[in-house]
Amino acid sequence: MQFVKMEALGNDFVVIEGSTPDPGQVRAWCDRRRGIGADGVLVISGPDDSGAAARMSLWNSDGSVAESCGNGLRCVARYVFDRGWTDGPAFVVETPAGPGEVEVMADGSVRAGLGNYRIGSSVTASGYRFVSASVGNPHAVTFIEEPSGVDGVDLAEIGRLMQDHPAFPEGVNVEFAAPLEQEVFRVRVWERGAGETRACGTGAVAVAAVAYAQGRAGPAVEIRYPGGSLGVEIAGEAGWISGPAVSVFAGTIPA
Question: Which one of the listed residues 112, 135, 155, 200 is annotated catalytic?
Fold first, then answer.
């Protein structure tokens, strides 16, 4: 089976066409010592809707199915565009969370619409006050005033504990954010099914949406992850992200 390893701000994926992997295959491929190494697996196939260019399915590195992935969507967009599957740089990709509008820019970066977000209630856990948000998948966002506080958080421990919180029966992605300067936030993220990752597209929208709702920022912000910077735009009740998505290498998975 042929694969391409892709990454978007260090959020990395094994990308294949057509086949549906089982959880054991996903875990083996994503293993960073014995496999290819990735945060998840993306499968690209022909669309169900004739108006879309392709359809994407996705799995977390632990073998669980994921509903939404903003960085994964941007990688799929580059894959589809680079292979000439679409007539132009702007097109639609079907995702489990609904149609994703994407545009490959002249510099190779990708702008992607992640659909409508929803902001929920406040939740207190592990000594922090989180705000719940949905961007096709569940998030819990909290703000710390000092950027150094974000680095000092035991994110792995808190992320694991949050998976058993009664407010999130299906688990949750956890974001710690701090303001760096006007309209710029330093963020670390713990993704359910993958652990701490270098970046998260839906998490960036969740942070931006909560910041905007709380008056911490305007509708356009920069999210600085350990893996790099992601631009986020809040347009009405929808979120858009912009940033790089690149192929790293290609290979063959043994039968």
Answer: 200
